[in-house]
Specification:
single chain, alpha+beta, seven-stranded mixed β-sheet, two-stranded antiparallel ribbon, 10 helices, 53% helix
Length: 337
């Protein structure tokens, strides 16, 4: 999709998000996204999605992250929609989210029945869960209605629930060539996009604050030390955005995707610490509450930094990729000489 159309998506989704408050699940916001089809952008139309590509969906994920909005587009379209599309299964009605774990399935002459405990972000608000399940020796994608949920939250107050399945019959299932590691890679990719979006929110907030707040009769932005901090913050945010964009391009092109995603998650997770630290320094004693737009953004940076593996995990994965290639230059250059 062209840059012009991406700008149209940003404008339309931005208008929907305008004035929304941060916090838990925003049912009205989710309905607005569903009414316009943005909640399933990037999911093929033939399985009930809104069509479009991965980078189109990333525009929506980025904006939701920037606004710290209570809309699980990442867990719904980016993860659950992807699993369903790979398995050729229709998207069920209502809110559908992905399980981050693999559960066990067994059959009694009919559809598979699932049992186990699975980490399912936003499960308490969902109608269906899409999960990987072992059906004998084969992995399948299964869709089950949400039943028993043990509620928990991350540092940002986002639901990080556990779905408890007791012999639950799947409403749909199909074999799929995806394993748990590929799901984890996909999760790391979407968290990289979200981290870059939240980091941009911190930068925008810092720029406004130092331009508006005065000390000794002049704006904070006029002080050299503040300018240096702002420049360091902007550089880190830029590095995070470029890393996430590069990973999206690699995954879309199926070109050395593991290396690109590992680099993106290592970069964005490490950058989360720098961005949160400088952002709060520039705001002084302001912005620590969850209700403040800065606090909402940095709480998400700290939370998403750890989810699907922090920077240490993905740095190890990068090192392993280099060792496998046998050449550091071949890894970072994609084989260029």
């Amino acid at each position: 999709m062209s840059d012009e159309l991406h700008e149209e998506i940003r404008a339309a989704v931005g208008a929907i998000l305008k004035g929304r408050t941060t916090g838990g699940f925003d049912a009205a916001l989710w309905q607005d996204l569903a009414d316009t089809g943005f909640h399933l952008l990037g999911v093929p139309e033939e399985v009930g999605g809104s069509g479009g590509g991965l980078r189109d969906l990333a525009v929506v994920v980025d904006l939701v992250a920037r606004h710290a909005a209570g809309a699980p587009v990442a867990e719904s379209a980016f993860l659950a929609g992807w699993l369903l599309a790979r398995a050729g299964l229709e998207v069920p009605g209502g809110l559908v989210v992905a399980s981050l774990d693999v559960v066990k399935a067994h059959r009694r002459g009919g559809p598979p029945r699932l049992s186990g405990r699975a980490a399912v972000p936003w499960a308490r608000h969902a109608d269906h869960v899409v999960t990987l399940a072992w059906d004998g020796d084969d992995l399948c994608v299964a869709v089950v209605p949400v039943g028993e949920v043990e509620q928990a939250e991350n540092l940002a107050g986002e639901p990080r629930d556990t779905a408890v399945l007791h012999d639950v019959e799947a409403v749909a299932s199909a074999p799929v060539g995806i394993d748990a590691d590929e799901l984890r890679l996909r999760g790391a990719l979407v968290r990289s996009v979200q981290l870059a979006g939240a980091a941009r929110a911190v930068l925008e907030s810092a720029r406004r604050h130092v331009a508006e707040r005065e000390q000794f009769g002049r704006p904070l932005a006029r002080f050299q030390a503040v300018q240096q901090h702002l420049a360091a913050l902007a550089a880190e945010v830029t590095a995070m955005r470029i890393a996430a964009d590069a990973a999206l391009l690699a995954v879309e092109a199926d070109d050395r995707a593991e290396v690109a995603v590992a680099a993106a998650k290592a970069t964005t997770s490490a950058g989360a610490h720098v961005v949160a630290t400088i952002g709060h320094q520039l705001h002084g004693a302001l912005g620590y509450s969850a209700e403040h737009h800065l606090g909402a953004a940095t709480a998400r940076l700290w939370s998403w930094r750890e989810e699907f593996g922090n920077e240490a995990h993905w740095q190890d994965r990068l090192a392993a990729a280099v060792a496998e290639e046998g050449s550091w230059w071949a890894t970072v250059s994609g084989g260029a000489r």
